[in-house]
Amino acid sequence: MEEKAFGGPRANSTKQARTQKNQEVCGGQIEHIPEECLVNAISLSSPADACRAAAVSTAFQLAADSDAVWERFLPPDYNAFLDRAVHAVDFNSKKKLFLDLCQEHILLDDGRIVSEL
Question: Which end of the chain is more exposed for a tag (fewer CB within 10 A), N or C?
Fold first, then answer.
């Protein structure tokens, strides 16, 4: 009795073996993508997508939380903006700076202007 190529127990075991082989081959490869490539790709997305990317893997988290990614989300003149702030804006990363600027009002020019991202 012959088994059909697309059905039966033999086809299922072949499919399972193929799936297992694909998982072995692809399983850790994302960790081998250079961080600068991940940083570049993530920085072309949005801040929300960067936060989501951080949940993919450790490599993605390192890239998504990097200053290089969040610098691209900040306005080009953010340093001049910070220089005009009435009170110093404390931050230890560009991501924290971005989030703080989005969530808080910043007084500029001796308190005559209120701004946020």
Answer: N
